[in-house]
Amino acid sequence: MRRLPLLAPCLLAGVLLAGCGSSGSTSTSSTDAAGAPQAPACSGSTTAPKPSGSGTLTVWLMDGSAPTAMTNQLNAEFAQQYPGWKVNYQVQEWDGIGDKLAKALSSSNPPDVVELGNTQAVQYSQSGALADLTSVSNAFHCDQWLSALKTSGAYDNKQYAIPFYAANRTVIYRKDMFAKAGITAAPTSNDEWLADIQKLKQAYASDPSFQSLYLPGQEWYTLLSFIWDQGGDVAADSGGHWSGALDTPAAQAGIKFYQQLYQASGTTAAKDTDEAKPQQSDVFAQNGGHVAMMISLPWEEAGVVKDDPALASQLGAFPIPSRTDGRTAPVFLGGSDLAIAAGSKNTDAAEAYLALMSGSKYQNMLAASGAVPGTSTDTSALDANVVGPAMAKAASAGGKVTPITPNWATVENGDNPLKDMLTAVLSGQKTVAAASSDANSALTKILTSS
Amino acid sequence: MSVDTNAVLPGRNTTPAARDQRRRPAPSRRPRARRQVLPYLLLAPAVLAILALLGYPVVTVVITSFQQLDLGQLVRHETVWVGFANYREILSDPDFWTITVRTLVFTAACVASIVLGGLVTAQLMRHAGKVVRMIMQIALLLAWAMPVISATTVFQWIFDQNYGILNKTLVALGLHGFTGYDWFSTGPSTLTIIVILLAWQGIPFAAFTIYAGLLTIPADLYEAASIDGAKPRQAFGAVTWPALKPIVMITVFLEILWDFKVLTQVWVIRNGGPDGGSTTLSVLQYLDGISGHHYGVAAAVSVLMILIIIAVTAQYIRLLVRAQEVEI
Q1: Which member of A181, A281, A404, B315 lies 3.0 to 4.6 Å from A37 by CB, making a disulfide possible if both were Cys?
Q2: Contacts for B185 with CB less than 8 Å, ≥ 6 apart
Q3: pLDDT for A109-120, tens place per residue?
């Protein structure tokens, strides 16, 4: 449904978490070489400058991010609060946005406010395409920012982009199927998860199209969770130089668990596709529903309900279990940042717009739509959402992101070594050791290319 | 000068009177000068348009290939000259040579299947009855008219591991080894599917072009050949092929250009995977330029692609030029 999960990793939970990604904690990042992402302290006045004169503010938000009700109200309030200013609000498609943003931001008349997927933001921060917001961050409620998103919008100890919203994966499940299989509580460890899968398979042994868990072969964001859960990581950063870490024993253990889960679940999902082909929410709802679980982003729950409204009352969610009982696996935080173009001629108005948007009123509307708000620690509106509490719980336990380096975009936008690795392992073409070593070389090559 | 030239050139009208007239000095140079300038004036708009539309981008690409032009330079409007650094970077990467060889083999496979397929289809059209020919032509046109991305998506589904009609059909025929068979598991098998896809999309053009050529061959020639006792194969060699050769050559030439640089289908099928196994030069260029924002490196890849395609087609261009001279 949304392209977001493919592009935007770092969001949620910042509230709770130490940092976004392995560049991670600020205590170590101070020793990083110049160019490594570092988040500066909050500063500046808590009120945004009042834009003078009049004009038109061009705002680019991405397809499917902010609910229309929210943007309508926001744009109306902005125009009302600052007479003489109008908002030219445009919704952009994720497809091909990298190229479009590069062109737009380098033009003499760029959009004033842009939304950036949080894994993309660093490219634009590094290149000087974005205005430096370090000295005015308090106007955007800096003290409440999701720390993971804050890091994704920072570069070289300057803040170029501010958090917008975040989301992470949870396991969406069918309450009625769990009840029939005699499962009374959601699994809290990998062992329990695997045991529940066996119970589900026994309870539905007579249904040939039943899948206890729909798990496509290339769901690499889920693989990230398993690798992190084992204590591994995708890549390691030493002084701004990244190299792959997929061939470490911890990362290999994560890959093996993915393989174990894939085989145990009896999923019929293809080994060579990701969750978008076919759209897994469609599979989940297919023919009245023969799938008990899927690992998905919050809005995929809405996708299921749209396909088959009868399932609405049967859906629940729990955080991805960890190998350690009682904990949850670290999750990949996807999401977006907001930034002002360096070439914007309406900087004051753009700052006033972001100040308004980052206020609790609009952040609560974001939360109500099922996303973790980026500039407000109040996530109570999420509780009304089926997936919300599980998402917030997982995020609070540990949210991580992919390496914050401009080269990461090539990993996501090209032939992704992690996907190839998963397919090779699941189809038995390569051993875990061989596949992880091959993928690691490919990844290192991408991350170190100049 | 103009007088001399005219004297040397054989006039169209070679009667003595006309020749005399030509030898006489021109009464005035102006009309003749105007006559000489006029053709160029008439050509000028087209030439200028071609220069602006084709020449400018080519020059820009060549210039860019000597610059470091990443997102930063683009945004800051900086020009950073790096000499041959981009070329050194590309040429010193062993992957580049693998990809180049792969691209050439891939192009050869596409051109061969499209031109042979087109030739056979054109022959079929010529010999088929009216109704069958009509059906063939409509089918070819429909295949041709299908949008590239739609066709590519359909092919992806045909070869899909779980839901693909190919695996289902093979299993239904008793070949159970194809249950869940992954057609995209290796680079060569992925590229083979892309060749089939390109052939499916490319054959209609080749078939119609060659069919048009076939129609220009007078039926008398075949009659004469059969009176001389020529078998169909001999008739093809003696009558069809000589008449068809220029058209087949130009088709080959065009297909080389098109298939060498094809990006959409290759990219959409597997993004150049698995493990970079279906990465062609165009995919490499896309990855460097659009995906990685290294526009200078991508421009250098483009220039190298142009050089390779010139090397590959040099012989064809020579033959084409010579063939034209012969016909004139």
Answers
A1: A404
A2: A272, A423, A427, A429, B274
A3: 999 999 999 888
